[in-house]
């Protein structure tokens, strides 16, 4: 291997790192799982859809698949125990499980509120708590939570979801503060508007898709594969002095999106800009 290759491997390799991921069977989780495995990580993939996550694990060399219900403390502990038995330890926890239902604030039923809050925030808390105890005993670890564009910016119909993701970021910072003494780091990845099977309906919508493109500087949705790089970096030793932060991967959506008209001789042909 070249000197460059040696240095990149030293910084970003996940060889020898035992990684547990919830929500692994989802559109983003499954792509992250493959990317982490390609970087050398050993994976315990966890999801409520046990058949799907076991199928995914069977397609990734050395991965194991487990069922988990993040609304059930007993299920979480059983999953964590199984992951430790399979991997020997847990170096990295990635909380990717989450749900949403787009409704106006006045339309949200209590059961809907409780379920979104339970999976997206309480489930993350309980999973971090169960794995955190193990990491304290083993002398260190690394937590990566999945936030959202909605943890900082808001869309109509996403009130409960946005509240949970804002809570995830606050929880991430709290863990960074409390657990640094145990050599445990905690960060979050906040994806922007990513194209997945679940969001395709939005990107095909005649008005919402235009509204989104006007607010994204790069004028297109992100791809799940474009989240792999930041995830590998945060899981690796390259991020050894990074903790308590939320990293937005959003194509320039938070920074302001499409500018108003301004004087310049360097006008791009907007019709040639990518739309997908």
What does this structure look like?
The model has no long low-confidence stretch (mean pLDDT 94). The chain is globular. Helix 2 (29-38) packs across helix 9 (228-235), helix 4 (73-87) runs parallel beside helix 5 and helix 5 (110-138) runs parallel beside helix 6 (159-179). Helix 2 (29-38) links the parallel strand 1 (18-22) and strand 2 (42-47). It is of the alpha/beta class. The protein has one domain: Rossmann fold (3-Layer(aba) Sandwich). It has a seven-stranded parallel β-sheet with strand order 3-2-1-4-5-6-7, with helices on both faces. Helices cover 41% and strands 13% of the residues. The two termini are 37 Å apart.
Question: What attributes characterize this protein structure?
Answer:
Rossmann fold, alpha/beta, 276 residues, single chain, 7 strands, 7-stranded parallel beta sheet
Helix content range of the residues, please? Answer: 40-55%
Number of domains: 1
Radius of gyration, CA atoms, in whole angstroms = 19 Å
Structural class: alpha/beta
* Biggest sheet strand line-up: 3-2-1-4-5-6-7
Spans of at least 5 consecutive residues with low confidence? none
State the oligomer.
single chain
- Quick one: biggest sheet? 7 strands, parallel
Q: Strand percentage, roughly? A: 5-15%
Question: How would you sum up the global shape?
Answer: globular
């Amino acid at each position: 291997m070249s000197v460059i290759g040696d240095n990149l491997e030293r910084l970003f390799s996940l060889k020898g790192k035992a990684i547990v991921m919830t929500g692994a069977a989802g559109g983003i989780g499954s792509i992250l799982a493959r990317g982490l495995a390609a970087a050398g990580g050993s994976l315990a993939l966890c999801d409520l859809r046990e058949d799907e996550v076991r199928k995914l694990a069977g397609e990734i060399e050395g991965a194991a698949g487990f069922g988990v219900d993040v609304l059930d403390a007993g299920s979480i502990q059983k999953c964590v125990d199984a992951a430790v038995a399979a991997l020997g330890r847990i170096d990295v926890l990635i909380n990717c499980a989450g749900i949403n239902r787009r409704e106006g604030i006045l339309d949200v039923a209590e059961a809907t509120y409780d379920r979104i809050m339970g999976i997206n925030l309480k489930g993350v808390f309980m999973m971090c708590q169960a794995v955190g105890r193990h990491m304290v005993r083993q002398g260190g670890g690394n937590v990566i939570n999945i936030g959202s564009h909605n943890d900082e910016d808001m869309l109509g119909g996403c009130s409960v979801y946005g509240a949970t993701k804002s809570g995830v970021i606050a929880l991430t910072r709290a863990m960074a503060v409390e657990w640094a003494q145990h050599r445990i780091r905690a960060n979050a990845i906040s994806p922007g508007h990513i194209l997945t099977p679940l969001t395709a309906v939005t990107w095909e919508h005649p008005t919402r898709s235009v509204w989104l493109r006007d607010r994204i500087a790069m004028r297109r949705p992100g791809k799940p594969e474009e989240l792999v790089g930041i995830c590998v970096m945060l899981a690796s030793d390259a991020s050894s002095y990074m903790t308590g932060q939320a990293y937005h991967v959003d194509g320039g959506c938070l920074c302001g999106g499409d500018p108003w008209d301004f004087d310049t001789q360097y006008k791009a042909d907007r019709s040639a800009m990518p739309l997908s």
